[in-house]
Design brief:
Number of strands of chain A: 0
Helix content of chain A: over 70%
Shape of chain B: elongated
Number of domains of chain B: 1
Structural class of chain A: mainly alpha
Largest sheet of chain B: none
Structural class of chain B: mainly alpha
Shape of chain A: elongated
Radius of gyration of chain B: 16 Å
Order of helices and strands of chain B: HHHH
Distance between the termini of chain A: 139 Å
Oligomer: heterodimer
Largest interface: A-B, 14 and 12 residues
Strand content of chain B: under 5%
Strand content of chain A: under 5%
Radius of gyration of chain A: 54 Å
Chain lengths: ~200, ~110
């Protein structure tokens, strides 16, 4: 019926494409073997023709060689055509594999999740809010630490310098200067009359 | 809705069983194609023994693996056809070992998971 065209590719099976490729490979290989045989025959006839002294026989060999060369050229054309055909069938096989691959990959449930953009945005925002809230908890705790620490003032009576401490500190500092002076006073300035044997 | 009939489990298992039998039978063709190479024939026979005893399953991931194995067997057929002409079976052997040691084992593992 005319409005319903049969879709040939709908029922295309990979198995059929594989069988077609195998068949073409066999044909191409048969042609290749026949070309090799023809080349050998041509070489043999050329050798015979060189050795042959009779002109008639030489002509006969020449005719035979030219026929074989024509057949060889036609066989090469057929082989090239088969190669091209095989290449296209391999492309068709790859297209079938691609179709299956992308269809199967799409079926994976996690891939389906990614296709839901709104749901994905909602989920990512939720994750971001969770992260920000967790960070806020830490920074708030840090602020609390600093606030409480700020309320504390050092007790001067324990850690500060009172008047008696001040006097002692002054003595300590003065004591350092007195020692310096006494060291200077201990040095004997009087001239030494006795000759020192140590020199 | 009445006009959408979902395949029941028994029908799915039966279909998978037929599919497994077809795969095992297709290996006979490969064995006849590659009979010149003993190592390849041995690998194919070992593969066939494993595939023959696959458990039928209705799980989607197992069915996908069956499809993958079937596709690889098709590629193997092409490789063996080429190898037969040229006498070099290295690629075909490598693919056959990949199917036997990786895909078949994975399929069995997934089919036996509850």
């Amino acid at each position: 019926m005319w409005p319903f065209k049969k879709d040939k590719f709908k029922n295309l099976k990979r198995e059929d494409v594989v069988n077609a490729i195998c068949e073409l490979e066999k044909q191409e290989n048969d042609i290749e073997k026949s070309i090799e045989d023809m080349v050998k025959q041509i070489d043999a006839l050329m050798e015979k023709g060189r050795k042959e002294k009779t002109q008639d026989l030489k002509l006969f060999y020449v005719k035979k060689i030219s026929h074989l060369q024509e057949e060889k050229a036609e066989a090469i054309n057929r082989a090239v055509y088969l190669l091209y055909n095989t290449r296209l069938l391999n492309k068709l096989k790859t297209a079938i594999d691609d179709n299956t691959f992308y269809a199967n990959t799409g079926k994976i449930s996690l891939t389906n999740l990614l296709s839901d953009q709104k749901g994905l945005a909602k989920f990512l925002n939720k994750a971001l809010n969770t992260k920000v809230m967790a960070e806020d908890v830490l920074t708030s705790a840090d602020d609390t630490f600093n606030e409480v620490k700020g309320l504390y003032t050092e007790n001067d009576r324990i850690y500060g310098v009172n008047s008696s401490d001040d006097d002692l500190l002054a003595i300590l500092e003065a004591g350092v200067e007195e020692e310096d002076i006494s060291v200077v006073e201990d040095i004997d300035v009087t001239p030494n009359t006795e000759v020192s044997t140590e020199e | 809705m009445w006009f959408f009939k979902r395949k029941n489990k028994t029908e799915q298992l039966l279909n998978n069983k037929h599919h497994i039998e077809a795969m095992a039978a297709s290996i006979d063709v490969l064995i006849s194609l590659g009979q010149e190479n003993e190592e390849l024939v041995a690998t194919l026979k070992a593969m066939q023994d494993k595939i023959k005893y696959f458990n039928p399953s209705d799980k989607s991931d197992v069915l996908d693996l069956d499809k993958k194995i079937e596709n690889k067997l098709g590629d193997l057929k092409i490789d063996i056809t080429k190898a037969k002409q040229k006498g070099e079976y290295a690629n075909a052997l490598s693919l056959a070992n990949e199917i036997k040691d990786v895909l078949v084992v994975e399929r069995n593992a997934k089919a036996n998971l509850r």
